[in-house]
Automatic annotation (TrEMBL):
InterPro entries: GlpE_sulfurtransferase, Rhodanese-like_dom, Rhodanese-like_dom_sf. This is Rhodanese. It comes from Pantoea deleyi. Gene3D superfamilies: Rhodanese-like domain (3.40.250.10). Residues 39-129 form the Rhodanese domain. It comes from the Bacteria. Coiled coil: none annotated.
Length: 147
């Protein structure tokens, strides 16, 4: 018997509902880079790691907001009309999940960056260093991931 088909595939309708829901919770590095490159203002990227990790390299334009410090008071300055994309080191770190959970529990719209900073760097997207968020570099046409 087929290992793949041992458990039957979902119906097309169930697959559609599941996959749409999955994309509501996550974004990937290529999609985020494309939006940052277009300088869209309705997305805010949050680096949920500790300040030392942020200073050592982060996504251009990301703000450092460690998940451990998120609460009603510290998030009061955030614009609730924006979508917040959280990230941490990568798939071995759950800081982005903790940040997204805290933000969602406080009424913010959130998505997690799949693969975090690891996948961002693997795909060759720009980084910046230090305390400042940095600006998205203005250069030639964006690369394509081929997917």
């Amino acid at each position: 018997m087929s290992s793949v088909l041992r458990i039957p595939a979902a119906t097309p309708q169930h697959s559609l509902e599941y996959l749409q829901a999955k994309l509501a919770y996550y974004t990937d590095a290529w999609d985020l880079a494309e939006d940052l490159g277009q300088q869209l203002t309705d997305i805010v990227v949050i680096d949920a790691r500790a300040p030392d990790a942020y200073r050592a390299g982060h996504i251009c334009s990301a703000i450092n907001f460690p998940h451990r410090g998120m609460n009603a008071e510290s998030t009061a300055r955030l614009d609730r009309s924006k979508v917040y994309v959280t990230y941490c080191d990568g798939i071995g770190c759950n800081g982005s999940t903790k940040a997204a959970l805290k933000l969602a529990s406080l009424g913010f719209q959130v998505k997690e960056l799949t693969g975090g900073l690891d996948f961002w760097k693997r795909d060759g997207h720009p980084l910046t260093w230090g305390e400042a968020a940095g600006e998205w570099p203005v250069s030639g046409p964006a690369a394509s991931c081929g997917c």
